[in-house]
Design goal:
146 residues, mainly beta, 8 strands, 33% strand, 2 helices
């Protein structure tokens, strides 16, 4: 299984990805596999019935994002506003910029692709990916001794 993130801008392996591989539960690593990378910080949470991806991308409107499922890949990106470059000449000092964002994850058979939902609030894009019934963890059950 390959989970290393390759940066498109720098064309190198992320040196911290091995820590994610060691710390992230195996089920998360196998159900949602990242493809490509970006500068946006991403948290992946697993619950009994779903996964949640939380992507920190402040400063945009929800209309700027493009989210789609294509050939068993969840693809997330955003388009920069047309007038972004027109204001460049007015900067006296510039410490941050808006760059395009493009990220995709390979979805396994455990994910119910029809149930994927998205919400953008407070600069966080949250994607909810429901699990198929067969992939849901059964509730704990006490076994009686006979």
């Amino acid at each position: 299984m390959k989970l290393a993130t390759v940066s498109r801008n720098q064309n190198r392996i992320d040196p911290f990805q091995h820590l994610v591989n060691e710390l992230m539960p195996r089920t998360t690593r196998t159900a949602i596999k990242p493809v490509g990378s970006s500068r946006a910080a991403i948290n992946i949470l697993e619950y009994d019935d779903r996964f949640e991806l939380k992507i920190a991308i402040p400063g945009f409107a929800k209309d700027n994002f493009e989210i789609r499922v294509e050939e068993d890949h969840l693809k997330v990106g955003f388009k920069l506003p047309e007038d972004n470059t027109a204001q460049v000449k007015n900067f006296v000092r510039r410490e941050f910029t808006y760059e395009s964002f493009d990220r995709s994850w390979e979805l396994t058979d455990d994910i119910d692709q029809e149930s994927i939902q998205a919400n953008y609030e407070g600069g966080i894009l949250q994607l909810t990916l429901g699990k198929k019934e067969a992939a849901k963890k059964p509730a704990p059950k006490a076994i009686e001794i006979l």
